[in-house]
Write a structure and sequence with these properties.
alpha/beta, 10 helices, Rossmann fold, 51% helix, 218 residues, five-stranded parallel β-sheet, three-stranded antiparallel β-sheet
Length: 218
């Protein structure tokens, strides 16, 4: 099967997608990491992230690997473990910029389709069920209150970012939501045949069980 999980930042889609992939012994593909990798490479080179031609060139030559491990999945960029670098807020903001660009999305969507075309994959992002794999076998759309999503992001990042402010993160979440939903290219929308999953008041284990049961029609 191809399982598509979409939703806004902090909705829990990546964490649940990893757990579902592990239960099914499927590959997990974090498409957000691909956009983050483009932004990260561009930032390291000091490039203008609004230069769509340059960003498309980076996307076209992107060498990214998803390597599963006992505790976490590592993301290798050009053979280097970039997992932690890609989680930074600076890279995240850059990813929002490049993800809105037509040619970058075209290049990365083609790569994502190639990765998942053999099936047995759980892929999460913002347009998997609508654009990348509109005929996915199972589709889920995660939602959660902005305040809860901000709190989750804060808990995830606070140890490595001592000056982090919760209110700032919540505002950034809302701003990212606005950008994702209103961009002209592949806006964040729920596929008509996707199951909406509100994760606000549920634990990761409860959400994972719910999704797993739906996949198996239990």
């Amino acid at each position: 099967m191809i399982i598509a999980i979409d939703g806004p930042a902090g909705s829990g889609k990546s964490t649940v997608a990893k757990l579902i992939a592990k239960r099914l012994n499927y590959r997990y593909i974090d498409t957000g990491a691909m956009y983050r990798a483009v932004a990260w490479i561009a930032q390291k080179k000091g490039l203008d992230l609004t230069d769509e031609s340059a960003m498309a060139d980076i996307a076209g030559s992107l060498n990214i690997e998803f390597v599963p491990g006992p505790d976490r999945q590592a993301v290798l960029v050009d053979g280097k473990d970039a997992t932690d670098f890609l989680k930074s807020e600076t890279v995240g903001r850059g990813a929002a910029t490049v993800a809105a660009q037509k040619f970058v999305r075209e290049v990365l969507v083609a790569q994502q389709r190639h990765i998942g075309e053999t099936g047995n994959v759980v892929m999460d992002g913002r347009d998997i069920g609508t654009v990348v794999f509109p005929h996915a076998d199972k589709k889920f759309f995660f939602v959660a209150d902005a305040e809860e999503r901000g709190r989750r992001r804060y808990e995830e990042l606070k140890d490595k970012n001592p000056g982090l402010d919760l209110k700032t993160i919540i505002e950034e979440i809302r701003q990212r939501d606005h950008e994702d939903r209103n961009r002209k290219i592949s806006p964040l929308v729920k596929a008509n045949d996707a199951l909406e999953v509100d994760t606000t008041r549920f634990s990761i284990e409860e959400v994972t069980d719910h999704v797993f049961k739906n996949i198996n029609n239990l």
